[in-house]
Design a protein that fits this description.
Order of helices and strands: HEHEHEHEHEHEHEHEHHEHH
CATH class of the largest domain: Alpha Beta
Pathway: Amino-acid biosynthesis; L-arginine biosynthesis; L-arginine from L-ornithine and carbamoyl phosphate: step 1/3
Helix content: 40-55%
Strand content: 5-15%
Shape: globular
Family: Belongs to the aspartate/ornithine carbamoyltransferase superfamily. OTCase family.
Protein name: Ornithine carbamoyltransferase
Number of helices: 12
Number of strands: 9
Strand order of the largest sheet: 7-6-5-8-9
Largest sheet: 5 strands, parallel
Catalytic activity: carbamoyl phosphate + L-ornithine = L-citrulline + phosphate + H(+)
Main location: cytoplasm
Length: about 300
């Protein structure tokens, strides 16, 4: 995908719909072994937030491409002592070939991208989680053989995952319903951007009713009710979010062949029950694996193969 070489991925909206579909096709080819791309470059991981799947999947993907990974733990770099973002960005630009950043504010990510000439990837911010949705779409495509003419229902907090799902589903022609308590709806700017991308070709619904949202859905999706940095709010959120739990009762009103997704880590017994997570309709572990394949395709495309 030469068109992506040298570019940043700060949000899914940085891609065209065709580029997104081509990335998913490349990820599928890499996963199946049909293609074997070599990319002897250096990836830096600058993570201000804890991570399991994102850290390990990016690292393994880069190693499998033949490259190297440097874990730039903020606690042991000058970042922890207040070095300005623009200074760190310009220095890392001289050492690395590509940089994945996991942080809180989207603006910090955009500042890095402005001052660094190498590709910068959003590995999660409070506004979006584009790499997660690449894996989600790959998983859905594997399960249904298509992405269009399906309905995905997301239940819970209108957070970064919900934002990126709105954009991703709009780009691939998938109906998307976001069901949240009234005070936890997704950002209205993201909703409007998604509707503009969809151009009235699909259904984009924001609702407070989890039952209506789940009815006849092809995919039920959830995330933790309190994201990183919101832990102090967890106990207050639980009663509000309880009706949005994915359990066997809610799953029973989705389509018979519906699948269940969760971006992990999960709080079993809160946003999803143990029975559903371990049930026959769960595709959560395939979804987690696909982080590696989707990100391998993304790294190869942004860097260009050797």
């Amino acid at each position: 995908m030469a068109a992506l070489t040298g570019r940043d991925l700060l949000t899914l909206a940085d891609l065209t719909a065709d580029e997104l579909q081509e990335l998913l096709q490349l990820a599928a080819q890499l996963k199946s072994g049909e293609l074997n791309i070599r990319c002897n470059k250096v990836l830096g991981l600058l993570f201000y937030k804890a991570s399991t799947r994102t850290r390990v999947s990016f690292s393994v993907a880069m190693y499998q491409l033949g490259g190297q990974v440097i874990d730039l733990n903020p606690n042991v770099t000058q970042v922890s002592r207040g070095e300005p973002v623009e200074d760190t960005a310009r220095v890392l630009d001289r050492y690395l070939d590509i940089l994945a950043i996991r942080t809180f504010e989207q603006q910090q990510l955009e500042t890095f991208a402005h001052y660094a000439q190498i590709p910068v990837i959003n590995a999660l911010t409070d506004l979006g989680h584009p790499c997660q949705i690449l894996a989600d779409l790959l998983t859905i495509q594997e399960c249904f053989g298509r992405l269009s003419d399906l309905t995905l229902t997301y239940l819970g907090d209108g957070n970064n995952v919900a934002h990126s799902l709105l954009l991703g589903c709009a780009m691939v022609g998938m109906n998307v319903r976001i069901a949240t308590p009234s005070e936890y709806k997704p950002d209205s700017t993201i909703v409007e951007k998604s509707r503009a991308i969809a151009a009235n070709k699909i259904e984009i619904t924001i609702t407070e009713d989890p039952v209506t949202a789940a009815k006849d859905a092809d995919i039920l999706y959830t995330d933790v009710w309190a994201s990183m940095g919101q832990e102090s709010e967890a106990s207050a959120r639980i009663p509000l979010f309880q009706p949005y739990q994915i359990n066997e009762e809610l799953l029973s009103i989705a389509k018979k062949q519906a699948i269940v997704l969760h971006c992990l880590p999960a709080h079993r017994g809160e946003e999803i029950t143990h029975e559903v997570m371990e049930g026959s309709q769960s595709r959560i572990w395939d979804q987690a694996e696909n982080r590696m394949h989707a990100q391998k395709a993304l790294l190869a495309s942004l860097l260009g193969a050797d």
